Amino acid sequence: MKKAELVFIPSPGLSHLISTVEMAKLLLDRDDRLSITVLIMKLSKDHVVDSYTENISSNPNITKCLRFINLPHQDESSISTNFLFDIIDSQITNVREIVSNLIKNQSESDSRVAGLVLDMFCTKFMEVGDEFNLPSYVFFTSSAGSLGLIQFLDSLKHEHNYELTQFKNSDAEFSVPCFSIPVPAKMWPAVILQEGQFPTMFLNCFRRIKEAKGVMVNTFYELEPFAMGAHGVTETPRVYPVGPILNLGSDQTSQASYNDIKKWLDDQPEISVVFLCFGSMGSFEEGQVKEIALALENSGKKFLWSLRKPGGEQGFMSFPAEYENFQEVLPKGFLERTEGIGKVIGWAPQMEVLSHPSVGGFVSHCGWNSVLESVWFGVPMATFPLYAEQQVNAFELVKELRMAEAVRIDYHSDSRGGEPPEIVGAEEIEAAIRRLMAEEEGRSGVREKVKEMKNKSRMALMEGGSSYNAQNLFIEHVLRNIS
Which positions ≥6 away from 26 have C-beta within 8 Å? Predict the structure, then answer.
């Protein structure tokens, strides 16, 4: 029996790697004619990648068909402010060599290289696929709505000759095919509105998605029916809604940290706790921390707050650190006044917390993985986006799908350090938390909508479900490459 080998290439960073590996594992479970090799680009300060891959590799049932190859580490000190694309570009020779070796070695096995599956930031490697006459696919780790917005912005710039920077701080709204309502320019990814080369590199990267043979999107039809309907009638490659792709297995690295948290959560009433967590890159300066603390205290709601310290450097590679003492940043006496009501922690095992029955609300940065996790566990969100595509995710949840409350949907954290941080006031945060945790009469029933979507997210992955069928269609396309 011939096997089709796919080469997955995620972009640097743990969140994209986890989504990629979970996608790979799901495809392998679906069809034993597949094998997958994952090429890993590691950042020097992202120390958890090795422990994650070692944990996966310790399972012999998985490693029969899934293997990891670490690409050579690059000297990040010489990389420019366009470092993400610089890192990716610097690996093209290494990727070419590995793919070449895989093709040479396939004559010694029953496996045939059937294509590349590229992260949405890694479309540069389509050049390698073209060299070896291999089809390239894209795994888009965000929403179908985000994919549609990026395609729309690319069209504005390259087909209609708009200078996108003119819309910075603009109140303009646009009809975007993947949304049923106009999308404000303030919801666009901030990188699009910056000066310099990075916005052009960003759009050029996403523009190449049109050249792919297919696009797997980490969503499911029932969550984004309007967006998926729009993708179905455009001239882009076929879009496969294959999600939700989540890391639902036990994370061994998190168990020790979770024990103390779980003990506290076990003592709280059902759906009584609001959980605040802002992703692997999320942190706030002292002024914003104090406003959040005041909002929590005034709301009177039980809370679990993952509070992390901004890294020492600006930019994408500035990973948050842990506080040695939370009192150095929190209002004086806050911990004493909220003792028994709330708990402040550092890094949080987010999946385990969201799955706990005492958690009734989630104040989130709206990273797409976090959105899917909140839906999977039926926990309604309050949106507090920071960077990347999180603003459009927040807009989609609050305005398009009406599945979340808004702290603010157009908040932007300046990750590149060019402007002083915006501050969201305590009253605004408190009001959102109150709406989230106790719905008012006459409201649209956010909690009920999320609960309904929780059931649909699980049905999508079952045999005969929308995502199950989309996965099978993708696999059939891949297997035709070796027939």
Answer: 242, 245, 471
- Model confidence, pTM: 0.94
Bond preceding residue 60 cis, omega within 30 of 0: no
Is 119 an annotated catalytic residue? Answer: yes
Count of alpha carbons within 13 angstroms of residue 109, beta-carbon side: 13
Residue 236 near residue 215 (C-beta atoms within 8 A)? yes
Q: How far apart are CA 201 and CA 263, in angstroms?
A: 47
Residue listed under structure tokens 């309907």: 229
Answer CATH for 3-245+460-482 from 3.40.50.2000, 3.30.70.1230, 3.40.190.10, 3.40.50.460:
3.40.50.2000
Residue extents of the structural domains in the chain: 3-245+460-482, 255-438
Interval 220-275: pLDDT, tens: 999 999 999 999 755 569 999 999 999 886 554 456 678 899 999 999 999 999 99
148, 188 Cβ separation under 8 angstroms: no
Encode pLDDT of 279-316 as tens digits.
888 899 999 999 999 999 999 999 999 999 998 654 44
User: Which of 3.40.50.2000, 2.60.120.10, 3.30.1060.10, 3.40.47.10 would CATH assign to domain 255-438?
Assistant: 3.40.50.2000
* List of long-range contacts for 260-268, beta carbons under 8 Å, 24+ apart: 261/304, 261/343, 261/345, 261/348, 261/349, 261/352, 261/353, 262/352, 262/356, 264/304, 264/343, 265/304, 265/353, 265/356, 265/358, 265/359, 266/358, 268/302, 268/358
Per residue in 251-266, pLDDT (tens digit) is 544 566 788 999 999 9
Report the C-alpha gap between 365 and 283 in whole angstroms.
10
DSSP H/E element including 431 = helix 426-437
Asked if 384 contacts 411 with a C-beta cutoff of 8 angstroms, the reply is yes
Chain center to CA of 191: 16
Backbone region of residue 6 per phi and psi (left: phi > 0; alpha: psi in -120 to 50; beta: other values): beta
What is the C-alpha to C-alpha distance for residues 120 and 10, in angstroms, rounded to an integer?
8
Catalytic residue among 47, 119, 231, 266: 119
Place of tokens 């759009």: 203
Residue 267 catalytic?
no
Residue 172 φ/ψ, nearest 5 degrees: -65, 145
Catalytic one of 16, 231, 356, 412: 16
Residue type (1 letter), 233: V
